[in-house]
Amino acid sequence: MIKINHKEFQTLIKYIKKYYGIDLIKKKNLIEGRLSNVIVTKGFDNFSDYLDYVDKDNSGKEATFLIDKLTTNHTYFMREEKHYDFMENSVLPYFENTINDRDLRIWSAGCSSGEEPYTTAILLKEFFNKNFINWDSKILATDISSTALNTALEGVYTETTLSKLPNVWKMKYFQKTALNKYRISEEIRREVIFRKFNLMSKTFPFKKKFHLIFCRNVMIYFDRKTKNELIDKFYNHTIKGGYLFIGHSESVPRDETRYKYVMPSIYRKV
Predict the structure, then answer these.
(1) Which residue from 130, 223, 224, 262 could staple onto 266, CB 3.0 to 4.6 Å apart?
(2) Is the per-residue pLDDT at 266 higher than 90?
(3) What does the pLDDT look like over 161-204, one tens digit per residue?
(4) Fold adopted by 81-154+188-268
């Protein structure tokens, strides 16, 4: 295994922090474990030469590959199920009665391989039922990982990934493939718009504000300052009465956000 020296380590973590907001200061072993073989395969003898190669690649493809290797995209359908219960019982009934133009805007920020936005799309279709056709409720799903987004666009998942879904949803919205995997239906696929987007962008290019923003298990990689700055940008892009859902393992100090605390991992703009 190729070892990373102190200078190389500092160069790498500063690069990742600057462009992606991810704090890897305590992840030296992870970096060595995930990148050593990559460096050898690509014909380099050390981290310095590889990082120089990443920096000089104007296409950005190698930087994308690097961030894919260093971040974990583990997720599944109906992850953190209490969020969907709250959404079904409180959030959607409220919006159903208050959105007069039937334009419901939802953003899955850090959508990984698509399980979160697809779950949300299924829930919307089930909730609105016959009235679903009258709603403009397409979900924006973004991530920095091209690999994760490609998986999401393909829409094919293992049975394990679907294990928490109600059986009736599996039968209704998935088709079993020849390889014992499950392909999500076209009607649900059409409800999600996938885009590559870096949450560290100085400005968010959205013309309209969102009613609901999911950013779950993303900010665990960020330091306190980066996290608070991102949440502040989310707040500015949330309509009054809208919600922010974060991961159950994440928290936001109540005195450091303009969102109102609703319950663990759920905040609201009032």
Answers:
(1) 262
(2) yes
(3) 999 999 999 999 999 998 889 999 999 999 999 999 999 998 99
(4) Rossmann fold (3.40.50)
Q: In whole angstroms, how far apart are CA 225 and each of 23, 48, 141, 210? A: 11, 28, 24, 23
Tell me the C-alpha distance between 129 and 111, whole Å.
25
DSSP H helices, the chain, are 6-20, 28-41, 47-56, 61-70, 81-86, 92-98, 115-128, 146-154, 167-173, 186-189, 224-236
The architecture CATH gives domain 6-70:
Orthogonal Bundle (1.10)
Residues 140 and 195 sit within 8 Å (Cβ to Cβ): yes
Nearest to 69 by CA among 108, 27, 107: 27
CA distance 129 to 180: 29
Beta pairing partners, 193: 140
Q: Tell me which amino acid residue 101 is.
A: D
For residue range 103-157, list pLDDT tens digits in order. 999 999 999 999 999 999 999 999 999 999 999 999 999 998 888 999 999 999 9
Residue with tokens 């885009």: 195
- Tell me where in the chain the CATH 3.40.50.150 domain(s) lie: 81-154+188-268
- Whole-angstrom CA distances from 112 to 13, 31, 150, 181, 229 are 22, 20, 10, 18, 21
Residue range(s) of every CATH 1.10.155 domain in the chain: 6-70
The first and second tokens of residue 118, run together, are 């697809």
Smallest CA-to-CA distance from 242 within 263, 213, 208, 264 is with 213
pLDDT band at 220 (very low <50, low <70, confident <90, very high): confident
